[in-house]
Design brief:
Distance between the termini: 46 Å
CATH class of the largest domain: Alpha Beta
Largest sheet: 9 strands, mixed
Shape: elongated
Number of domains: 2
Helix content: 25-40%
Number of strands: 23
């Protein structure tokens, strides 16, 4: 990929790096506002977002989930079955298709998942199953604001699990907390796990992943005794449910939510399987959701610096940025082609700009490896200030391979559970 092909922000304008700016992501060239609460991801934002999806997809697959893609335009009948056609409220975007068929744009996928599983689950032997997707959902948000934090359409990574009994659902409920913790650790987002209200989704209990931030609209408490909860679940305002100490509310951005649904949807929508006792029973369900577009904005706000974003390595838009100091760019073009062919995400700065402008772009994209042409050779700077000088063009590829492979091996040395960076206040 070449810088001349990209849509890039004006990095000479330092005002674009104001983390509280209402146009921050637009100014940085990550999104384009189409209308209030509706945005397009620009090429740079898309590169980062695809890496975010890859991380969470890998973690879900490692936990035994299977990926699906649900319908977006749902028939009204399935929402009437669950009782949410009316109870979900004005956020549900309803419409009528040809022939007066009532439908809605899915704001979440419980109904879609149950409808699918009614055709595929017949016996306890078919359980457990955990379907997940990463796709757009839609809500008629009355007050869209703060760029990607509150919108009419957004990308959610949600999952729906089906179990023989509550014990198995409990195991999945905890496993999904581990998955979310691993995902948010890779995103560089130090979330707090809190006890939460079940809201419009329902079920018996739930936990949220809250990112403490001054722009957050949620309010939660985190006591020194380890208890953390949304303020709405406190028995007494400002008092810890566990130890009785006084605690102050913290502003947070809700990035993830995990629910224990019991048989809330399987019973209402007549999903049954034959149990071990040969009797028909409703599978116990769980569901989860991560606001992916909201998480993208949270990464930017959390890692913004004076001249760019210190992207966590796992989500940096490029593995390698190449700078050339010569009008003869054939070496750079060849290195870019070879790295791209090996699946390395690479940006070659082929623009006719000053060295300062090249450095500004490198600082802004914060890649793990920077290659700088010095005459007939190359200098390489790896994240962590490791510098290698005088590399021949032929030795550049082996060097990059070695650095990237070392990073991959350091991750592979740990099991899924060991990779988890536990957060305070893990809820049971």
């Amino acid at each position: 990929m070449f810088a001349s092909h990209m849509i890039l922000p004006d990095l000479r304008n330092q005002s674009i790096f104001d983390r509280l700016s209402p146009t921050l992501l637009s100014d940085l060239g990550l999104i384009h506002k189409g209308a209030a609460g509706r945005f397009s991801l620009l090429p740079l934002g898309t590169l980062i977002f695809e890496r975010m999806k890859k991380i969470h997809r890998r973690n879900m697959l490692a936990a035994g989930a299977i990926e699906a893609t649900f319908l977006s335009l749902a028939p009204a009948d399935t929402w009437r079955e669950s009782g949410r056609w009316d109870s979900f409220g004005p956020a549900l975007i309803k419409t009528k298709l040809h022939g007066d068929q009532a439908a809605c744009l899915n704001p979440t996928h419980e109904e879609a998942a149950v409808t699918i599983m009614r055709d595929w689950l017949t016996s306890y032997r078919d359980l457990p199953k955990n379907l997940f997707c990463i796709q757009k959902v839609y809500r008629d948000e009355p007050r869209p604001k703060s760029q990607l934090l509150r919108t009419h359409e957004f990308v959610m990574a949600d999952s729906y699990s089906f179990h023989q009994d509550s014990s198995d659902a409990d195991t999945c409920y905890q496993k999904m907390q581990d998955v979310f913790s691993t995902t948010f650790a890779a995103y560089g987002l130090p979330c707090q796990i809190i006890h939460a209200d079940n809201g419009l989704i329902g079920g018996s209990r739930s936990v949220e992943f809250q990112l403490p931030h001054e722009l957050g609209e949620s309010r939660f408490v985190a006591c020194s005794c380890g208890y953390a909860a949304d303020v709405s679940v406190l028995r007494k305002e400002g008092i810890c449910n566990e130890c009785g100490e006084e605690i102050e509310a913290i502003k947070g951005i809700e990035l993830g939510h995990i629910f224990h649904l019991e048989t809330t949807y399987s019973a209402k929508m007549s999903l049954r399987v034959r149990g071990q006792n040969n009797k028909m029973q409703h599978p116990v369900m769980g569901c989860t959701g991560i606001g992916m577009t909201r998480s993208l904005q949270s990464i930017v706000m959390s890692h913004l610096k004076e001249s760019g974003v210190a992207w966590p390595k796992a989500v940096a838009p490029f593995d390698v940025v190449i700078q050339s100091d010569s009008n003869e760019k054939s070496q750079m073009i060849g290195i870019e082609a070879n790295l791209a062919a090996k699946g390395v995400s690479v940006l070659a700065d082929d623009r006719d700009v000053s060295k300062a402008a090249q450095n500004a772009l490198t600082d802004f994209t914060s890649p793990p490896i920077v290659l700088k042409q010095v005459g007939a050779h190359w200098d390489a700077v790896a994240k962590g200030n490791s510098v290698e000088t005088g590399i021949s063009a032929e030795a550049v590829l082996p060097y990059v391979d070695a650095i990237l492979l070392a990073g991959q091996k350091s991750q592979q040395k740990q099991t899924f559970a060991e990779r988890l960076e536990p957060f305070d206040g893990a809820a049971e």
